[in-house]
Design brief:
With about 100 residues, the protein is of the alpha+beta class. It is built from three helices and six strands. A two-stranded antiparallel ribbon has the order 1-2. The protein has a two-stranded antiparallel ribbon with strand order 3-4. A hairpin with a 2-residue loop joins β5 and β6 (about 80-85).
């Protein structure tokens, strides 16, 4: 998927707003951890899952990955990036003809 997970981690650290300020992570209120292909965002204050999806989509668009990857909720508390299934779309178009 994303070749450098550290770039996404850095993007999130720079863009997540706490108390209206981007990049400060609230002095430990929000923490971002990376392990292999997984990035975990933990927060001591209420944190919108939708906001995290918004930032991830913004990252994908900035790096021209939005055409190949999408953000999908795999559980109630997490998202994952998946490739678009282009083959299925092509087969559906052929069936309609």
């Amino acid at each position: 998927m994303i070749k450098k997970h550290s770039f996404l981690e850095q993007f999130l650290q720079e863009r997540i707003k706490v108390n209206g300020k981007a990049g400060n992570l609230g002095g430990g209120v929000v923490s971002i951890e990376r392990s292999k292909s997984k990035i975990t965002v933990s927060s001591e204050v209420p944190f919108s899952k939708r906001y995290l999806k918004y930032l991830t989509k913004k990252y994908l668009k900035k790096n021209n990955l939005r055409d190949w990857l999408r953000v999908v909720a795999n559980t109630k508390e997490s998202y994952e990036l998946r490739y678009f299934q282009i083959n299925q779309d092509e087969e559906e178009e052929e069936d309609e003809d």
